[in-house]
Amino acid sequence: MSSMRNAVQRRNHKERAQPREREKWGVLEKHKDYSLRAKDYNAKKTRLKILRQKAADRNPDEFYFGMYSSKTHDKGQKLADRGNTVLSHDAAKLLKTQDAGYLKTVAQQTRRAREKLEREYVLKDGKRAIVLGRALNAAEGQHIIFAQSTEEQKKTYPINSIKKQTHGEVSESHHSDDSIQDNDNFGSDDSRPAAAQIKSHKALIPEAAAQKQASALRKRRKRRYEAQLLRLKALQSREQDIVAAERELNLQRAKMSNSVGGVNKAGVKFKVRERKR
User: Fold this and answer.
1) I need a labelling partner for 118 at 20 to 30 A (CA). Which of 139, 177, 233, 256 fits?
2) Which among 136, 264, 263 is positioned nearest to 210, based on CA atoms?
3) Is the CB of residue 123 less than 8 Å from the CB of residue 129?
4) Cα–Cα distance between 236 and 110 in angstroms, integer?
5) How much is the pLDDT for 260?
6) For 41-176, where are the E strands, in sequence order?
7) Strands (DSSP E) along 107-251, which ranges?
8) For 21, which DSSP code?
């Protein structure tokens, strides 16, 4: 009988959503959410009741000698020993050496990632790189020449040659179209365009598709450049933080080995005495 009950399809019970007029209050609270919130509220309520009872039963004249050595935080929390063993001076120096090695390794990894991203990233203002060709698809490819300065860029590959290479095909196509139009209009008095020159709707569809594809490619390139720029800024900021932490750790190690001066706990500056030469 149980097998037959499981074979019959049952109704899927869906949870009720938050009404539209109450969307500003967030997701609709379910019973399990209310149970957790009520349990937490009751636990805090019980704890506050116990603390109020302890404060009411406190003896203002109570005293014991441990009060002399005990300390209290600004917020009223008592500061006590947690039972952790204090490391020796040599052990602390060894751990700081390991920390310095770790920071050095992470700094090298971050620097390599930043340099790799800088090599891949091509600035669009043309001051550090020249991008040749008009690749609309990924299969066509590009020819990229890197330069360290604007002068080297102009010397290596002049701008005039770039314009000739990029616009050569366009100018040739324009000249050929003009010659065809002259031949077609030769000897005709009618100034109206010929019927063959008027493009039909079917002929305009491939051009519109090509323009749409080119626009989508430009948008993808722009998003890729923006993502690379954000990642490059994040790597630069991380590298600066790691270098600052490494510098501070090296200063602490130098102070522990008494090789540099500094400021003691009383705020007094001191110098490390050097042997006279």
Assistant:
1) 139
2) 136
3) yes
4) 8
5) 80
6) 71-72, 78-79, 129-132, 143-146
7) 129-132, 143-146
8) G
> For residues 106 and 239, is the Cβ–Cβ distance under 8 A?
no
Dihedral pair phi/psi, residue 51, rounded to 5°: -65, -40
- Amino acid of residue 219: K
Strand-pair partners of 79: 71
Strands 269-270 and 262-263, by their bridges, are antiparallel
Contact, 122 vs 129, CB < 8 A?
yes
Closest CA to 99 of 88, 91, 111, 87: 91
CA angle in degrees (0–180, nearest 5) for 194-178-136? 100
- Bridge partners (DSSP) listed for residue 262: 270
- pLDDT at 132 (0 to 100): 41
CA-based diameter of the chain, in Å? 123
pLDDT tens by residue, 192-238? 555 445 667 777 788 888 888 888 888 888 888 888 888 889 999 99
CA distance linking residue 134 with residue 139, whole number of Å: 12
Asked if residue 110 lies in contact with residue 238, where contact means CB atoms within 8 angstroms, the answer is: yes
Is 238 in a helix, a strand, or coil? helix
Q: Number of C-alpha atoms within 13 angstroms, CB side, residue 163?
A: 4
- Any idea what DSSP says for residue 262? E
Q: What percent of the chain has pLDDT over 90?
A: 19
Torsion sign (Cα): 153, 158, 160, 164: negative
- Give the integer Cα–Cα distance in Å for 121 and 135: 17
Q: Which of 31-40, 98-107, 135-144 has the lowest mean pLDDT?
A: 135-144
